[in-house]
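lol forgot to send this yesterday, sorry. struct tokens for the thing we talked abt
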């Protein structure tokens, strides 16, 4: 029978390629933009919800409620992106 090669052990290397630090900085800026956009979406959606509620327009109020929920989920995913990626990278390394 064929003898298999020894176990392969490859891990992420943050020093192998030039520009990794700049790429991390860009991703950090994108996370900031995502959080600011979530905040803006929350403010706009809350205003739409309030206007729809006070003008007895259930469609407008419903869109505002949906926007608030989407803004909260977007902020949670953006804020927790690094933790989520680290969790799944660690879980994938154990497969």
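and heres what i got for the seq, position by position
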């Amino acid at each position: 029978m064929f003898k298999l090669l020894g176990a392969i052990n490859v891990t992420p290397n943050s020093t192998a390629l030039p520009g990794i630090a700049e790429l991390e900085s860009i991703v950090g800026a994108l996370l900031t933009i995502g959080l600011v956009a979530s905040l803006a979406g929350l403010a706009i959606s809350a205003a739409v919800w309030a206007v729809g509620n006070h003008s007895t327009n259930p469609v407008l109020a419903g869109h505002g409620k949906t926007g608030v929920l989407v803004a909260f989920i977007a902020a949670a995913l953006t804020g927790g992106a690094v933790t989520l990626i680290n969790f799944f990278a660690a879980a994938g390394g154990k497969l």
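The CA atoms of residues 42 and 62 lie 14 Å apart. anyway ping me if u want another try
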